[in-house]
Structures are given as structure tokens and as C-alpha cells.
Amino acid sequence: MLKNNFEIEVKRPEFPDREFDIKEFGGVPDGKFDNTEVLAEAIASCHQAGGGTIIVPEGEWFTGPIHFKSNVHLKLEAGAVVSFSDNFEDYLPVVFTRWEGNECYNYSPLIYAAECENIAISGRGKLVGNGEKWWPWKQTQHTAAKELYDAEYNGIPVEDRIFGREEGLRPQFIQPINSKNVLIEGITIVDGPMWTIHPVYCENTIIRDLKIITDGPNTDGINPDSCKNMLIEDCNFETGDDCIAIKSGINEDGRRVNKPTENLLIRNCKAKEGHGGVVIGSEMSGGIKNVHVHDCVFNGGERGVRLKSMRGRGGCVENLLFENIEINNLRNQGIILNMYYDATTVEPRSEIPPLFRNITVRNIKGENIKQSVVLRGLPEKKMKDITLENIELSGREGLSASNLDGLYLKNIELKVESEEQFKFKNITNLNVENSSCQENE
Fold it and tell me: Is 275 a catalytic residue?
């Protein structure tokens, strides 16, 4: 099991004391001039000089995609707004990416860093994604998504999975991929086309002190994807989907790549809207392990702590600790571990079950929650060794648990309206200590 003192080693990237002001490269902060080439030239110059900091001063800087190089720090000063083009063709040619757990070539993310080391985005400025023009693709992308999901199953090589076509797959906002020593700090990020911050195959990443505000479909906040050694702290979320969603690839493609997300620390984060506060899955076929989430507040949205998977995913989620979390005013579940997730674009092509084991959720309190706790394992692959301790929640419905091997409940205090307060089905090794449920007054 994960210990209370679980920590990870992540180091802040360091840069030479060398500055590059984008005004000196011909940049114009009038909200109309296209600064794409200006930023590209500044990044290239900084990189060639051995690294440093690119200064984005106060003003509105309109641009297309920004592609990072190693040893570059992009700093947005207070009052600086970087506003991105909503012209689809500006994000071509296609780049290597991972889209909802599958490798392919697609539109460039708005900010993209491939195989970089020692990079950062920081400051007190704002990134505006102007994603609204992309959002209708949510209703039309099913054909492209099915084509991509079936590619691995049908033996199509990654280099031949080329998209970048209209009404296809929306790009992410910020994506470092195959990169090391990454820092994203201090800025406000608003309304990208899809997932907001999506690190893929990254190592040693720090994401802190961000404000992420998104209104569109699938505009998750932060999605660590097959990453190792990451710290997320002091971030505020108001998102159109999950606030933090931890992933590691989907189905056959995730199992082929076989890179888990591991050694992840999340602390002192707040959310006022989102489908889930901290979420694992549903793309988790490469495995997820050693995650510690603590001292967070989720006040509003649909769910608090959420794990989601289904038959066909495979993979193992293990050694998780959620503690000291406040959850209030949730439209669905406060805590949900669900292996029957069904909100997916394309059904899996196999019946390989995932595995959830060694998960502890403790010191959780909250009120005005539709249902306190839901634990749903698979009958052929029960969730194993799940501990809930010091849980104080109130709302409409109580605790429901099915298909588990090893459920430990200690100091569970639920105040609910429902007559059925604790429901158990197909549970082996059930241990209940000092727990009660009372009718809500």
C-alpha cells in the first residue's frame, strides 16, 4: 500500500540568465498581427544561444501554433494575453500525438513540445485558445474516432494514421510529448479546442498555480498520460469535462505502448465545475500506479474522486491514496470506482478486464451530494483491497458496493435520504468498523 509520506522527486528546470523580448523580433501586441513567425524565430534564437527566457510583455499577442525547443522558457508578463488562431489550416502540417489514448498524426496542439528537455511556460499572463470554432466537431468526429480506435486492431502502422482533416479530431491546447523537465506555472488558460494540458510520455513535470477555465466539450483541465514523476499543485479548475484525468493509453494501442503513469503527486487543488475533481481513466490500458492526492477542495460539478474503466481496457490501477479532501454540492457521486464505464465513443474489441487494487480513500467530508459512494467491480475481475476510512458525507443516497474482494470500511458516517443506506453484492472479505448511516433530517 501507498504510505502516508509518499513523495516524488521532481526538480524545477533551470535556464541561463539570458532574455529575448519578442518585441525585438518584430512582435506586435495589437490582437491582429500574426506573431507566429515572430515567436518561432525567438524560440529558435533562444535555443541556438544555449537557452534562456523569452519575454512576452503586456498586450494581446495573436498567433498560430507555438512549437517549443529544448532549454526555452516562455514567460508571460502580467497583462500579456496570447490569443490563438481558430483557423484550422494554421495547425497543419500534422504532428505526432496521442489522441484519447491512440497514437496518430493530427493537427498540431496550440502549444507543442516534442522530444524537448528543460522547457517552461510561466508568468502571470493568459493563454486564450479560442476553441469555440472547434467544439461542434464533438458531434461529427465519431467517424474519425472509430477509424483511429480500430487502427491498432487492424494493423495500421502509426505513421499511416494521418488525420488533420475538418470535422475530425480536435487538437489539444498544450502538449509536451516525449519530453523531460517540464514546468507550467502561474498562468491562466482559457477555452482550448479539447484537452487543456496533456503531457504524454513525459518525465519530471511540475504543473502549479494555474487557473484553467473551459466551457467546451471534453475540455479537461490536466491529463497526465503515460508520464513518470509529476507534481500538480495549487491549481484552480472550472472545466467542461474532468478537472484532472490521469491516463495511460486505450485498449490495444495502450497495451502495445505499455507505459504506465506512475509516481504522481496532486495537492492543494480546487474545483468549482467539472465532470470529476480527480479522475483515473477511462484510458488506462498501460497501467497507473503510485498516485497520492491530498488536501483538495471540490465544491461543485458532477463527481469528486472518480475511477472509470470497462471490459476491453486491460491494465492495472494500483497503489492509490486519496486523503484530506472536501467535496460539496455534487450532482452525482462523491466517490466512485466504476468498472462499468459506458460513455465511450467506440466500444472495445475485446473482453480483457482491467484490475483495480490497493486503493485507499480517507478523511473525506462533504454535503449536498446525490450519492455518497459507488464501488462497482467486475464479477470476473473483482476490485481488490479497497479501504474507505473517516468518510463523512450527506445527501440523497448512501453507499453501494458490488464485486469486490477485500473491502474495509472504518468510521463511515453517512447522512442520507434514501431508505437503502448500505448496499452490498458479491463482496468477499468485507470488514466494517464503527460505521453508520442515518436518515437525513
Answer: yes
The DSSP 8-state label assigned to residue 172 in this structure reads P
Q: What is the pLDDT of residues 207-241, one digit of tens each?
A: 999 999 999 999 999 999 999 999 999 999 999 99
Phi, psi of 16 (to 5 degrees): -60, 155
In the predicted structure, residue 5 carries a pLDDT above the cut 60: no
Mapping DSSP to helix (H, G, I), strand (E, B) and coil, where does residue 214 land? coil
Q: Are strands 126-128 and 211-213 parallel, antiparallel or unpaired?
A: unpaired
pLDDT at 3: 44
Smallest CA-to-CA distance from 415 within 303, 355, 334 is with 334
pTM across the whole model: 0.97
Is the pLDDT confidence value at 4 over 60?
A: no
**Calpha distance 287→318 (Å, rounded):** 8
Please give the mean pLDDT across all residues of the chain: 95
How would you classify the pairing of strands 203-208 and 174-177? unpaired
Which 8-state DSSP code applies to residue 30? Answer: B
Active site residue 234: no
Task: State the cell numbers at 207.
Answer: 504543473
Burial code (b: 16+ CB inside 10 Å, e: under 16) for 201-238 equals bbbbbbbbbbebbbebbbbbbbbbbbbbbbbbbebbbb
Assess whether the region 12-241 and the region 243-441 belong to the same CATH fold: yes
Handedness of CA 258, 248, 234, 71 (dihedral sign): positive
What is the residue extent of each domain of the chain? Answer: 12-241, 243-441
- Find the length of the chain: 441
Of residues 241, 253, 292, 294, which has the active-site annotation? 241
Tell me the sheet residues that pair with 279.
245, 306
CATH class entry, domain 12-241 = mainly beta
pLDDT digits (tens, 9 = 90+) for 29-58: 999 999 999 999 999 999 999 999 999 999
At a CB cut-off of 8 Å and minimum separation 6, what does 199 contact?
A: 175, 176, 177, 179, 182, 205, 207, 223, 224, 225, 227, 230
Beta pairing class for 95-99 and 102-106: antiparallel
Tell me the DSSP string of 43-84: HHHHHHTT-EEEEE-SEEEEES-EE--TTEEEEE-TTEEEEE
Type of residue found at 357: R
Residues 6+ apart with CB under 8 A from 306: 242, 275, 276, 277, 278, 279, 280, 333, 336, 338
Of 2.60.40.10, 2.160.20.10, 1.10.10.970, 3.20.20.80, which CATH number belongs to 243-441? 2.160.20.10
The active-site residue, picked from 67, 73, 198, 275, is 275
